[in-house]
Amino acid sequence: MKKKLILLVLLSWASSSIVFAEEGLTLDGEELDDFSGIEMEESDVHGRTNVAGAKDGGSDHESHQHEKEGHEHDDDGHEEKGHGTHDDEGGDDGHGHGEEISDVELNNVQRRLAGIELMTVQRKSLGDAITAPGEAMLNAYRTSKITPRTPAQVIKRHVRLGDHVKKGQPLITLSSVEMAEAQGALMESDVELRRVKKLGRKVVSEKRFVAAQIAYQQAYAKASAYGMTKKQIESLIKTGDATHATGEFRLLSFQNGTVISDGFVVGELIEPGYVLMEISDESMLWIEARLPPDDANRIKIGSSARVKVGQKWLSGSVVQARHTLDEATRTLAMHIEVANKNDELHPGQFVKVVIEGNKKREGLVVPVEAVLRSPDGDWQVFVQTAANRFEPKEIEVLNTVGDQILIQGLAEGTTIVGKGAFFVQSEMAKGGFDPHNH
How far is CA 255 from CA 234, 280, 342, 372, in A? Predict the structure, then answer.
């Protein structure tokens, strides 16, 4: 009876161990012992059981079998991880890693549509950045005001607000009593002068001849001072008809430009000095920047400047600097001249101004739009490696002044993408490139 109980316990123990081993269960973080190698021999007629095989040869045989199964499992796992998944996706290099892309190729059509422009990096000096608010204003050296020089009435308007005019183009027709008197005197003096010239000095005394000349010159100057041009005066004299001395005359534009203001109505009586129209060439505007005295002392006439209009930067230079402080703001005003070819700036518009100071640093200067952040956060530019191939190159940013950046990390003379770098980066991102170029 005792032997039977021992036999039942051993059988139960062996069965439980086999189940745990097959299911891969663990206890306290360790694998349970595998008792599958225990061989149970049949009992003899006396109920005796031989368990020696569990201690001797059976153990070696089963251990070898277990190692063989484990080796086959490892091979399956390697094949699934290294070959099965990536081969199906077509992105494996044979070692379980995806292909790394470190450059991008763009054809001529892509480059043209994206507006990609190349540039050669050159060593230059760039000053420190002095930032200040600014306001666009008319360029006083490219602006003229149209005013009458004698009391007059507006007879006709020839141009309107916002019109572009040419030099010498008629703007306004006026009528003036004083002008009528000047025109009459001019025609009278002209007739007298031509008469004495025809008679000659042998008939006309010297005094009369000189008097006729003086009268003509004074009448001519008076008509001109009142607003008649040389061409208008000559046309009036040529008619020889005193009925044309009505006092009407036209004010002409002194320059090419745009009608900025026209504060009058037809029929209005205008006093001398009243600004009828203001004409200005808006292709070159001034930006007035107000700076503290310490910052202003770091800037010289001719210093480069950048003006930010919306998301775009315009280049300019300092052309004027006041020498007296504004009583209210205690700042010095500086005028920066900028080109405004596309009419992006308008007088009265507030802008951001960055002026280059006199503390210079040497390095490679590139446009701001040529420098981008890489996926890992470093600064980079795109270097041309072949006719249509570009690869990212990490650089160090030293200084930024407006839309110009001082960098290092490239060789002078390197060709990079100066405009359109964002498109190149986007195309490269589609290929999943390695930001570290590993």
Answer: 22, 8, 20, 45
The answer to whether residues 288 and 134 touch, using CB atoms and an 8 Å cutoff, is yes
Q: Which helix (H) or strand (E) holds 243?
A: none
CA distance 212 to 316: 56
Cα dist from 295 to 133, 311, 337, 358, whole Å: 13, 25, 19, 10
Q: pTM to 2 decimals?
A: 0.57
Place of tokens 């349970």: 32
219-250 per-position pLDDT tens digit: 999 999 998 989 999 999 988 888 888 999 99
Give 348-379 pLDDT, tens digit per residue.
999 999 998 877 788 888 988 889 988 888 89
Per DSSP, the three-state class of 358 is strand
Tokens matching residue 261: 């203001």
Alpha helix positions (H), 33-143? 57-79, 85-89, 108-114
Domains of the chain, with CATH numbers? 2-88 (no CATH), 104-125+361-430 (2.40.420.20), 129-139+281-360 (2.40.30.170), 147-266 (no CATH)
| Burial of 74 from C-beta contacts in 10 A (0-12 / 13-18 / 19+) | exposed
